[in-house]
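> call design_seq(struct)
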């Protein structure tokens, strides 16, 4: 049994360990932050960004703040958790209509065409040195064991807060025949999780998959799964249809012309899962994370009948208040004529 002194010292020791870890990765972040390219064309979203030397230092501090969990101390607001969330999730693929269930951040269950798809799963609480996560704003009430039978996992990209190896390992153990759809540069990370079948669709080429048609399209983002923060893979948006309903899943993105092209090629869509959070500090991350108004603009460009905001209120990733994020998203929806909603964790909405 630990002594009172040991217990009192533990928080300080833990804080010192985190500070040491941040100091160790800071030089790598300084190198990585100078890397060019965000999946966007030249000049896109550059007007909001700080000048290169300032942005390098700013991004380094931003990543240290994330590593230390500095954002949102004392704020208190976060995504809500639905009543009986685990029970609701276990029944997410049992209805007679296509539906979407939000699991927090960019994790969701898409039920369409009788298939149960899981996006960017980050569910298990087990810490991992090779698959670290930011600190949570809200405890995760859902585990892999709570999920319904999953037919496939769809990954937008391979960043740590979207591809979580402890969760993928638990999925591979529970669903031995699991299939995982990935963008280029992500398969190697998924293979570390165990025996799953990895599928690498070609960009822009419709693929027949378990009775669905799935098309990988661009996102204005990249995979940077390394301490140098250099690009290690791509990021995709995913268009999923059963021939009657059509869903667009965007796990993470900046704003850019990819979505006008998706609208021309695939629109209108019935429902879009669109990221709305982690958009501050704007002068540092405008090219990689949309703000709520840009998220609604994307929904309008793809002709979405319903936009569900994701990538918010789950992790301490940025300094904006989650309640402000939701307010801006809903307000922008009203201003632009887009039906914009958020769900509680474990909440389900029917595809219109």
């Amino acid at each position: 049994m630990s002594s009172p002194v040991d217990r009192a010292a533990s928080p300080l020791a833990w804080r010192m360990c985190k500070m040491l870890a941040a100091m160790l990765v800071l030089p790598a972040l300084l190198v990585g932050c100078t890397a060019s390219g965000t999946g966007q064309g030249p000049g896109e979203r550059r007007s909001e960004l700080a000048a290169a030397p300032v942005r390098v230092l700013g991004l380094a501090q931003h990543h240290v703040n994330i590593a230390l969990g500095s954002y949102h101390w004392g704020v208190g607001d976060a995504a809500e958790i639905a009543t009986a969330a685990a029970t609701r999730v276990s029944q997410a693929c049992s209805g007679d209509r296509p539906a979407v269930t939000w699991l927090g951040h960019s994790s969701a269950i898409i039920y369409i065409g009788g298939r149960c798809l899981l996006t960017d799963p980050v569910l298990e609480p087990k810490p991992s040195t090779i698959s670290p996560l930011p600190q949570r704003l809200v405890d995760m009430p859902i585990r892999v064991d709570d999920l319904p039978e999953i037919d496939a996992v769809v990954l937008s990209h391979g960043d740590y807060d979207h591809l979580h190896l402890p969760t993928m390992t638990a999925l591979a153990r529970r669903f031995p025949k699991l299939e995982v759809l990935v963008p280029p540069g992500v398969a190697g990370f998924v293979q570390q999780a165990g025996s799953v079948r990895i599928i690498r669709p070609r960009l822009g080429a419709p693929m027949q998959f378990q009775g669905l048609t799935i098309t990988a399209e661009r996102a204005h983002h990249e995979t940077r799964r390394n301490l140098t923060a250099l690009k290690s893979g791509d990021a995709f948006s995913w268009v999923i249809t059963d021939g009657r309903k059509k869903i667009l899943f965007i796990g993470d993105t900046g704003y850019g012309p990819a979505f006008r092209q998706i609208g021309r090629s695939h629109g209108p869509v019935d429902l879009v899962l669109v990221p709305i959070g982690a958009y501050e500090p704007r002068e540092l991350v405008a090219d990689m994370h949309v703000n709520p108004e840009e998220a609604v603009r994307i929904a309008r460009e793809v002709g979405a009948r319903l936009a569900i905001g994701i990538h918010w209120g789950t992790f301490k990733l940025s300094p904006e208040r989650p309640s402000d994020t939701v307010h801006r998203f809903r307000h922008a929806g009203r201003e632009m004529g887009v039906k914009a909603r958020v769900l509680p964790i474990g909440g389900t909405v029917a595809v219109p």
